[in-house]
Amino acid sequence: MTKFVKSNEAVVMGALYAGCDLYFGYPITPASEIAHGAAKWFPMLGRTFVQAECETASINMMFGAAGAGKLCMTATSGPGFSLMQEGLSYLAGAELPAVVVDVNRAGPGLGNVYPEQSDYTPAVKGGGHGSYQTFTLAPASAQEMFDLTMKAFEMAAKWRTPAVVFADGLQGQMMETVRLPEREMPRPDFSSWAAQGEPATRRNLVKSIYLDAAQQYEFNLSLQEKYSRMAADAMSESYMTADADILFVAFGISSRIARTAAEELRREGVKAGLFRPVTLNPFPRDALAAAAKGRKVITIELDAGQFADDTRLNLARAGLGAEAAGVKMVNRMGGVLVTVEEAVAAAKEVV
Amino acid sequence: MAEICQRGMYKTFPRSGKNTSFTHYCPGCGHGIINKLIAEACEELGLQDRTIFVDPVGCGVFTYYYWDAAHISAAHGRASAVATGACRARPDAVTIAYQGDGDLGAIGFNNAFQAASRGENFGCIFVNNSLYGMTGGQMAPTTLEGETTTTTPFGRDPSLTGHPLHVCEVFAQLKAPVYIARVSVADTKRIMQAKQAIRKVFEIQRDRKGYALLEILAPCPTNFKMNALDAAAFCINEMEREFPLGVFREEGRGMGEEERGKGEEERGKGEEASVLSLRPVPHAASCHDLFLEKDAAPAAVDDPSFPERRFKFAGYGGQGILSLGLCIAEAARLERRHTLWFPSYGPEQRGGSANCSVVVSGTPIGSPAVEHPDVLVCMNQPAYERFAGDVKKGGIVIVDETVPVETRPPEGVRLVRWPAIRMAEEFGVPKAANTMMLAALKKLECTGLSDGSLEKSLVASFKKKPALGEKNRELLRKAEQTEF
Ligand SMILES: Cc1ncc(C[n+]2csc(CCOP(=O)(O)OP(=O)(O)O)c2C)c(N)n1
Ligand code: SF4
Questions:
Q1: A329: helix, coil or strand?
Q2: Cα–Cα 20 to 30 A to A32, which of A51, A93, B51, B214?
Q3: Which of B1, B22, B23, B25 maximizes ligand 2 atoms within 8 Å of its Cβ, making it the mutation to test the pocket?
Q4: CATH number, domain containing residue B332
């Protein structure tokens, strides 16, 4: 069965189906509906909602709750996401599962509340200190706000890592139909490492400190090794790519503009397709390479080119140097969207 | 280094990387004594299995080497926030945060203060040694006036750096804490008192009574640049002068209480009782119970023969613009079409204008942005001026007849003026102007949706006031009789 819901609310529903027990958050537009939904629904299900005094508090409360072995989350937007970076690094350093939703607004600074994808680097590359990564998913619909929030919990628990659901202001406000699953996800068991205040976990220690340089080095190697294994869980969508001459590469809200542009181009006889990374980290490099080989690549994005650079990097790493060098970009910033016409025009210029 | 192998502690400390029974604290350090007292209290009360210690960043960072209980090692300043998360996640645990005066008094003050204000169920043990020990003896908020530290080389000058921060006294202004006290570990008598106070913090947590703060004055011989005895004497003679020992809150009663009582009297008796009250939280048994009991509908089905339609609705806030869009979206959902709705948001709404976009399609919807609507509904002039030029060729613009149309819409776009506001007023329900607009949409057959679903959706939009739903259905039918 389906519900017609605001994407931001779909996030809360997804979290509840995933077994999230605690929500910590501080209000910020355009993510506030996530806190509103959580404030109402978490207590109704006997779960915990805490309005924190700031985002630094939210992320550290999550450190405590995750350290105590429970699934927890927060949601925020740019300025709050910046404040959370230290905490994200600690979560990664202590290998704690937790989910942060960033509903990207325009920046830098206070910016405005309209959509951007400019938090790309901190959301995808690990914005805090140290060599860490997050498992980062980029929803493109209310359905995915639901599904990928659930997935984020699954991946966070599987890899013992903070996961980021990376959305944008427009998506947060959008209402669409969401299919709800039959069952809730079972709670994972973290008693082997969590500080649960129970006899079985008495000797457990949650920490990110390794005073000895050699030990810290070893730990870093094990983290990097974990991140390389994470690649197996990369997700992507290829749309009309099989015979494409032009390949749009875009994620999240931009991918939907690109999708309409590709359909428009097909109607006009131009063979266009779309490659959409669903996980931005791990990046679906092999799938991108398969879709992009021998094609002209155009990225559609709401930032200054951070995503285009990452696309180039991934193409080059996949051995597609020529495709990487040829990547073109259509972008907008400040809360202005790329229009379908602009994407179509860029494609026509390249053919 | 001091050897303090004790009850409640590990026998040796392999987590330090060495199989030693010596702690990392300097000789004469207050932390060492306090660590021992905490371990003893936890063990004596039989709470080791239930305790979660939240460790600070500061000289207390390595308490996890020593205390035989579960630990979470927090970021600098964040132990109270971390303890909040832990005690909320594990309400049956005994959660104890351990923090220094830089950790709690400076970088993490607000986190500690707000946790106390919320009355979180954890005990906070706050070690005041008047400076930053770990990082080399810098000034802390608690540094005494005239005290020399590495960042106050000429003594702390209150005209430049303010006065020492009295954490207990400040926290005692809060309503929630059940216990706030200041003790010292500078001599045997004080250590015995400190021990009792530490036990009390554990007991409060064991009995789940609420938030407790215990400040402990402690010597830091290394950064005081004194031997252990002189450092202890400094604690007694100098620190206690500024920070008197005592109990500031006991079982919820203390200075703050009396103050608040006074306020009540001063307000006088004649006033009415507050209108504010708590309401019970409705209970749901499961997600399914919570979300699928109501308004669930079958999923959309793909039907490429149904052409995509893009709508824009614009006007003033309060004209029911957003609900009108939602009504179309809901009707589309009833017909199992792919549907998307989104409103203007943010400061845009504050200027009094509102608009929303709706897309209805037989196939999955790409771009959510309605750059070129097939159907534009305008309830005021600014809306018309802003959007009419964007309407797609072959599209339609419906404007309220009160809107002066100064520029025609683009070629190939039909313009319909419709008396929505006037009709609603004539029917005696001025708020129903949006329903009057729905009548126009229906009559002009520009939604691609059946009359049945549009009516059903309209009625459903008043699910909290069913009588209004019926009334609107009646008005809708009446309006449709009107000729253009
Ligand atoms: C964000 C951040 N800033 C600075 C530091 C460095 N730092 C570590 S401990 C400390 C001060 C510790 O002083 P206090 O809390 O008084 O504890 P003490 O060592 O005196 O027991 C500082 C500034 C840090 N770890 N993290
Ligand atoms: S520096 Fe001061 S606080 Fe730190 S261990 Fe030494 S004496 Fe104790």
A1: strand
A2: A93
A3: B25
A4: 3.40.920.10
